[in-house]
Amino acid sequence: MRDVVVLGAGLHRFGRFPEKSLQAMGREAIKNALDDAGVPFKDIEVAYVGRVLAGMGAGLNVVSELGQTGIPVVNIEMACGSSTSAFREAYLMVANGVYDTALVVGFEKMQRGMLQIAEQKSYGTVMGLSVMPASYALQAQRYMADHGATPEMFAQVSVKSHRNGALNPYAQYQTEVTIEEVLASRTIAAPITLLQCSPTTDGAAAVVICAKEKAGKYAARRSMTVAGWATGSGKYVPKSHDEGDAEVNTGEVTRLARIAYERAGIGPEDVDVTQVHDAFSPGEIFTIEGLGLVGEGEGARAVWEGRTEINGDIPVNTDGGLLSRGHPIGATGAAMVTEIFRQLTGEAGPRQVKDGNAKVGLIQNAGIGGVNVLVFKR
Fold it and tell me: 79: phi > 0 → left, psi -120 to 50 → alpha, else beta; which?
């Protein structure tokens, strides 16, 4: 397989844009990514598009805003993991020599309110198993009982994320919050309060990838290499208390992380900056443990002690994460790739970690149908 590099990335700001169409948002993100990469649209050979709620043909409708060049446009739907799944498929096609250049796009426009994650008459809905705040809250309650964590520690995730989001001009929320404000916001599913829930969001993100051997023909100033990946869905494990749910199952994240680390030739101790799927604040704590960045039961304490801050030893969600940057489900994964690209190329501005010397970045993005773990190297 050939080495594959990310040459550029672009965003449309996340937030609420009732006056803008999906096409307008997607066009802006794609143009920003192409300009960033120095790659003309005519050289893009295939586009993989992460989208969920936009309806049939949405990928083509958005990509063709840049022109009709006859390329295949492949729609990928894996809920919140859609555009990292699109990225993985694009990467594999380029790595295996089918294409030299590819575009990855994610976009969404979302209604207010809680997202319905299962078909209305599914067993999950009937049994009350498809309510994500409750799933995270039950795991958090178990975690507090097992490891002595407190609600304040979960709330601190949101405080940190909003602090980082205030430094990100593309974030939906750019205002810091205090721990008192987080705890005082409306309870959704104890210990989770409103400010510990990711918002529904409008937004778009795009990434340009290329075979490393072909990248020299473009004017990109820098790049990062796709070093490792893994993907999988929930796995039934007899006698396990968290069996089957890949989004909140630390064991599943651990299994996938091991595969990604092996493919990348690194260990968790080599990771300089991480993006994780913090749909709800406990998710960050569970995931940094699952990824091996801290030991079992140490995640809440690591957040509380500032280790996950931009200037900490394991910086997490430097752009504000889902909690503050926003969570337009089709675009979230590509936005994660964008932030790791900015960090590894030293272009994250006030969010920059490791004095611009970060060399390894990691993404964990959960979706219905699979969790994706991606490793990148400068």
Answer: left
